[in-house]
Amino acid sequence: MHEMIAKRAAAELQGPCVVNLGIGIPTLVANYIEDDVVHFHTENGLLGVTEVGEVDPNLVNAGKLPVGEKAGAAFFNSAESFGMIRGGHVDVAILGVLQVDENGRIANWAIPGRNIIGVGGAMDLLVGAKKVIVTTTHTTKDGKSKLLKECTFPITSTRSVDMVITDLAVFDVVEERLILKELMPEVTLEEVRRRTEAHFIVGGLLDEHPVT
Question: How far from each other are the two terminal CA atoms of the chain, in whole angstroms?
Fold first, then answer.
């Protein structure tokens, strides 16, 4: 399921571009990229990350997972890395989330009463990246929708993301509205409606489901 989501996200990447991969499902996106001019960036100070194949045990990404560096990679300090993000030099950020609201705003850094990894670079990426893609399972482990009318966890930024990719569907976010763009294989429109709390608009042709 996670691999399917990552593969669909990878299809959105066309080089030349600089891409920041968040923690979780986003790290799998690199498995499906063969374009040599898609350059992966990590906010702890490396441009030219390789997250598949050979890794250097002395190098980690922002999620503290071992990574490698491809030929021509550049190293820099964290302040310069965040300067790249805030300066608009990251073309695409792919983030994991806890929740998405129907306006495309996300919560991905805090659960009240629990200790998780924290905001990291997500807030800066939402402000500075030219395009933000979310990858997530459509529901929680107990079957509750992650696409909500309103996030119940603290939001990461007031900026809406540009695309939401789940194991059920792909949504574009246009003018702070969720637009259902695609259904994942063997998923029906009725199933998406049943498992989504947030309001969304059906747009385009969805497999065999013409829009009326």
Answer: 30
Residue tagged 């994991």 (tokens): 96
Q: Is residue 195 part of a domain?
A: yes
What are the pLDDT digits (tens) for 3-53? 999 999 999 999 999 999 998 899 899 889 989 999 999 999 999 998 766
SS3 for 85? helix
Per mean pLDDT, which range of 54-58, 98-102, 198-202 is the poorest? 54-58
The answer to whether residue 114 sits within a structural domain is yes
Q: Which of 3, 34, 43, 69 is catalytic?
A: 43
Is residue 121 classed as helix, strand or coil in its secondary structure?
A: coil
Instruction: Specify whether 34 is catalytic.
Output: no
Q: Is this model's pTM higher than 0.85 or not?
A: yes
Q: Is residue 69 part of a domain?
A: yes
Residue among 175, 172, 176 at smallest CA distance from 204: 172
Owning domain of residue 73: 2-202
Return d(Cα 161, Cα 62) in angstroms, integer. Answer: 21
